[in-house]
Q: What sequence folds into this?
């Protein structure tokens, strides 16, 4: 089962393409991080996944063929939008009531238990809550709908580090409990490794990297060796990005091979891998036509 | 789904709203309360003033002196007019703008506020599609404002009753705009106009301003240019004809013996005092001497409902088209 499937998906605003030629098959049950610089098309992709935006070209479906925005999809997909919009003049209790009246699935006890655990007073107006509490209310409301797929658009971007930690902890606890699929976009790459097990990198409206995090890490290495032979290595090995120095050059390579003599290898980590790809928008690691696992190894 | 929180058994009144109707009520109750307060306040004014006016009408004997604007009633009529003439000339001219206010304060923010603050991303992803959301809101709020406007319009008609035989209700810009069906239809139109403009403009305050401007830009010219087209006015010799005072007088003019309209300078001469200036003008005699005749074209009071029905139904049709436009735009549009 796929949580999200897109085929040649594109979205054009006027003359600019916010997203183009996006073909993805994201398996269900994963925590997927969507990464990319500003303007890469992350929000556009997420909005299309929850039915707020209609594609200009191509198709998108969620939860095995359901059309985003249909009542079926709306009741099975939860969404926490950027800056977690809620009605500031409503109290927390009225916000819960609002969602209860808008949703077909609603677990009032679940929502109340979450908010009680966070010491959030139901009588407070949403507009008076701190940023962290505001985001937590939005998350609690989304989770109490028991979505099969939860989509979050930079949910923690505006939070201070502590509030962000608490938010991600609450999210991860819910994922562990309910086994839901999660797709979230994020700027904070340093924390990705702890939370996501699947990665999508978008750059300039196109998909640059897709894959299981472990597989991506298994198939990428950091090679360091003499700058003099760097060019020779580059011609024989797929290099994602290079950090040249006077004597020593570091290359992020996409291979499982043993490095050439004179070069030593290190495991890379997710942050480094993501940064390398973001620095080299022309490099890509996309799954092949058949299986995801073959993707990064091949070519 | 779960019901662990023990809820007290719901009383039969008030009925508990559920789903989108509750959402609509919860989100717009402040605007609705404002509209009810405005109409209620003006309604109390009409009620208090109307009770006094109706009772004075009887006390002064205007209901028993025959033709209210005839010579027998002249004395009590002067008193009545002194007491209530100002009310009747100003209240309708203020109240005719209430439909625009409802469009501005209830219609325009309906979608614009959601788009402006970003809450549409919350409201439209919770399980109900945005088409269901907008259709419910438009239908419920339109029903409510229609009922409110109709009730207010009825109250105004009751208040205005003594003046029906005096000034009538055909004259544009006056009681015509607040009585009958036009007031209610325009309220519906104002609301739907605000909703569509808010959807297109996506900002609350500009949408409110645009709604006020657009409402005026439609209503004003339609009164001046379109209403006269509903039916050709009756042309008749001026004079004490019984249905002219309560009608809408479209035009008055003079004709010479050949049946040609007098020019402006000829009419001017007609009103110039005679050479010695001292003796008063016997206007009728002067006309007769010159073989001039005076004419009037008018829409009689008997056409009131015909005009009202045509005008109101047009506004309702336009309002429905605006509503359909709003729904289709939201359905199709990539936000």
A:
């Amino acid at each position: 089962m796929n949580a999200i499937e897109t085929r040649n998906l594109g979205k054009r605003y006027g003359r600019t393409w916010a997203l183009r030629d996006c073909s993805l098959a994201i398996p269900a049950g994963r925590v997927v991080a969507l990464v990319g610089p500003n303007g890469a098309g992350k929000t556009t992709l997420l909005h299309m996944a929850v039915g707020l935006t209609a594609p200009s070209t191509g198709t998108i479906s969620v939860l095995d063929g359901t059309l985003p925005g249909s009542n079926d999809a709306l009741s099975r997909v939860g969404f926490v939008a950027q800056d977690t919009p809620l009605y500031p003049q409503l109290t927390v209790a009225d916000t819960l009531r609002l969602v209860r009246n808008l949703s077909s699935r609603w677990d009032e006890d679940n929502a109340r238990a979450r908010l009680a655990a966070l010491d959030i007073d139901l009588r407070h107006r949403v507009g008076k809550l701190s940023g962290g509490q505001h985001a937590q209310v939005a998350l609690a409301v989304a989770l109490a709908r028991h979505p099969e797929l939860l989509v979050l658009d930079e949910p923690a971007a505006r939070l201070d580090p502590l509030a962000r930690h608490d938010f991600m902890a609450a999210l991860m606890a819910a994922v562990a409990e309910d086994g839901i699929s999660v797709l979230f976009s994020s700027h904070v790459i340093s924390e990705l490794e702890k939370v996501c097990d699947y990665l999508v990198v978008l750059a300039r409206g196109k998909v640059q990297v897709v894959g299981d995090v472990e597989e991506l890490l298994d198939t990428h290495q950091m090679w360091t060796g003499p700058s003099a032979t760097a060019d020779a290595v580059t011609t024989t090995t797929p290099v994602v990005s290079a950090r040249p120095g006077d004597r020593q050059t570091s290359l992020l390579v996409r291979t499982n091979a043993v490095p050439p003599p004179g070069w030593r290898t290190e495991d890379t980590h997710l942050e480094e891998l993501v940064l390398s790809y973001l620095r080299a928008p022309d490099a890509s690691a996309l799954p092949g036509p058949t299986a995801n696992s073959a993707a990064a190894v091949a070519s | 789904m779960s019901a662990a929180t023990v809820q007290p058994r719901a009383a039969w009144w008030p009925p508990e709203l559920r789903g989108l109707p509750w959402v609509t009520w919860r989100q717009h109750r402040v605007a609705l309360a404002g509209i009810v307060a405005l109409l209620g306040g003006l309604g109390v004014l009409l009620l208090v003033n109307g009770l006094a006016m109706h009772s004075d009408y009887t006390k002064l004997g205007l209901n028993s002196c025959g033709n209210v604007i005839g010579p027998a009633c002249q004395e009590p009529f002067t008193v009545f007019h002194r007491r209530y003439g100002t009310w009747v000339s100003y209240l309708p001219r203020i109240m005719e703008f209430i439909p625009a206010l409802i469009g501005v304060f209830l219609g325009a923010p309906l979608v614009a506020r959601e788009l402006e603050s970003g809450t549409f991303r919350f409201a439209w992803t919770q399980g109900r599609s945005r088409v269901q959301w907008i259709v419910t809101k438009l239908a419920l709020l339109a029903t409510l404002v229609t009922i409110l406007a109709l009730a207010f319009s009825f109250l105004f008609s009751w208040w205005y009753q003594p003046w029906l035989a005096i000034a009538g209700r055909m004259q544009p810009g006056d009681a015509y705009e607040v009585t009958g069906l036009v007031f209610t239809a325009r309220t519906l139109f104002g609301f739907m106009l605000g909703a569509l403009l808010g959807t297109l403009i996506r900002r609350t305050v500009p949408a409110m301003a645009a709604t006020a401007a657009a409402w005026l830009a439609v209503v004003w010219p339609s009164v001046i240019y379109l209403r006269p087209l509903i039916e050709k006015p009756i042309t008749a010799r001026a004079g004490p004809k019984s249905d002219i005072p309560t009608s809408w007088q479209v035009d008055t003019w003079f004709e010479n013996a050949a049946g040609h309209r007098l020019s402006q300078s000829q009419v001017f001469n007609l009103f110039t005092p005679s050479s010695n200036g001292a003796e008063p003008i016997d206007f009728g005699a002067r006309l007769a001497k010159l073989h001039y005749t005076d004419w009037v074209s008018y829409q009689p009071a008997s056409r009131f409902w015909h005009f009202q029905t045509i005008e109101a139904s047009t506004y309702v049709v336009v309002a429905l088209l605006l509503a359909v436009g709003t729904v289709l735009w939201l359905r199709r549009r990539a936000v």
User: Anything to note?
Assistant: Residues 234-271+283-301 of chain B form one domain. Chain B has ten helices and three strands. Strands of chain B lie at 234-237, 248-255, 293-299. Residues 19-59 of chain B form the longest helix (41 residues).
